[in-house]
Amino acid sequence: MIEREELIEIVTREVLAVLAGEHQDLEHAGRAVESGAARLGYSGRGEDVPEALGQYIDHTMLKPTATPAEIDTLCDEALKYHFAAVCINPAWVSRAARRLRGTPVRVASVVGFPLGANTPQIKAMETRQALRDGAREIDMVINIGALKGGELDLVQKDIAGVSDACREVGALNKVIIEAAYLTDEEKVIACRLAKEAKAHFVKTSTGFGPGGATVFDVALMREVVGEKMGVKAAGGIHSAEEVRQMITAGASRIGASAGVRIVSGTEGEADAAY
Amino acid sequence: MIEREELIEIVTREVLAVLAGEHQDLEHAGRAVESGAARLGYSGRGEDVPEALGQYIDHTMLKPTATPAEIDTLCDEALKYHFAAVCINPAWVSRAARRLRGTPVRVASVVGFPLGANTPQIKAMETRQALRDGAREIDMVINIGALKGGELDLVQKDIAGVSDACREVGALNKVIIEAAYLTDEEKVIACRLAKEAKAHFVKTSTGFGPGGATVFDVALMREVVGEKMGVKAAGGIHSAEEVRQMITAGASRIGASAGVRIVSGTEGEADAAY
């Protein structure tokens, strides 16, 4: 287990150093973390944002009222617009996997969603069932209260149980830190714990919390996890311009229910969701 | 499996008949269902609301940011004010059960919460673990999208898996229908399915949906399930007067994060929560 104090020290040093490399000025970089890297024009990785944004998008429908017919439409739209994945609740994974079999569109399921306050055992079991049902990506929520209470060992074990289940079958674990509930320090700790627990991605938000993705959070998360992990921006992303901003700040995947509108300028049926 | 059409017929007849018995006028009763039984002064069961309201209250903290220390405070308040139970997320059940061992306060855990779109297998497993961890009541959420899509068999099996696990150890299954998402017809169907699936309670709301308990919903749910099941009103209940209204309409249990204020007129620490 990493001690909280040690973590904060490592991360402050690391984040400031990387931002300093960009800005040639440590004091300036320190203020960037304080005030939002975006305002300084900080570019995490995405200097070349491709024209085709569809490959970045997890086409998402997580509203509790989603019917089987709406899930079918979501799958068909994902195929039509070449989205990376559909992101859905676990009850619909086997249905979506059947519909998307033999296509490049992956099925992503959520786990411990959206509150994250389930036991580690159930998160791992929910993951294994989703993978058996055909999911190839898991978007799990951390135990937010444990993080806030300083029980970092519990937070890390909780993530590791899902990572291990994913790695056994070559699936991806995306760790939702629900940034809107966290201080900047807690965001950094959560990303470090996800990295230690061998997750593949960190993700900003569930879309059910008090706020969604911000450019600052994406830049901060990218700095903490480095270039080998993914960063998924999700929550409140409604336009191609916002997608490009998130990619420029360091996002490698975008979660959105407005994917059809984003890539085509028209309204998709899945649009009303989140 | 009960057919949808058959259900609607049974229930319309039943609800109208019971209301007619109260009002001596079938047309009048029909309008009561339409316009809200409360406005007609309909009293489901609670003509005698006791002075001590604490025994009705599930002292509730389900916010994702709840820390272990806040859960401890919730337990201590429940004991002090003689509440029926604490209602908490599954990650904290074993902790609360240890703290409340040997007291009359029961531990209630939520399952498939708050979206309800988990698989029946995981809902049953999450129930079994909560019961092993010390829960004696389970507040589960139905598969709302399956109900709306007419997959009533799935809705019923989903509930039955949790009811069965509860009945094995003498625990209670409270079925959250998340009424704010449902038409009146869907509310009636959900309550019928909960009764068929041998649940112990129906419950109005998670507190995370677009609306909480209403007097009309409580009266309607009480009519559908009859006198042998419980009805729990939850979501947005902040005062002793509101508790009395819910009990008068037919509620036998109240879910609230404002329990301390309700019974004492003062602010409890759990108050800010849901």
Explain this structure to me?
The structure is a homodimer of 274-residue chains. Helix content of chain A is 46%, strand content 14%. Chain A is an alpha/beta fold. Chain A has a single domain, classed as TIM Barrel. In chain A, strands 1-2-3-4-5-6-7-8 form an eight-stranded parallel β-barrel, surrounded by seven helices. In chain A, helix 9 links the parallel strand 6 and strand 7. The longest helix of chain A is centred in the first third of the chain and has 20 residues. Chain A is globular and about 50 Å long. The first copy, chain A, starts with a helix and ends in a 10-residue tail after the last helix. About 9% of the residues of chain A have low confidence. At the A-B interface, helix 3, helix 5 and helix 6 of A face helix 3, helix 5 and helix 6 of B.
So what's the oligomer here? homodimer
How many structural domains does the protein architecture of chain A include?
Answer: 1
Give the integer mean of the pLDDT values of chain A.
87
Structural class of chain A: alpha/beta
Q: Are there runs of chain A of 5+ residues with pLDDT below 50, and where?
A: 23-47
CATH class (first level) name of chain A: Alpha Beta
Question: How large is the count of helical segments of chain A?
Answer: 11
Number of strands of chain A: 8
**Biggest protein-protein interface?**
A-B, 37 and 37 residues
How much of the residues of chain A is beta strand, in percent? 5-15%
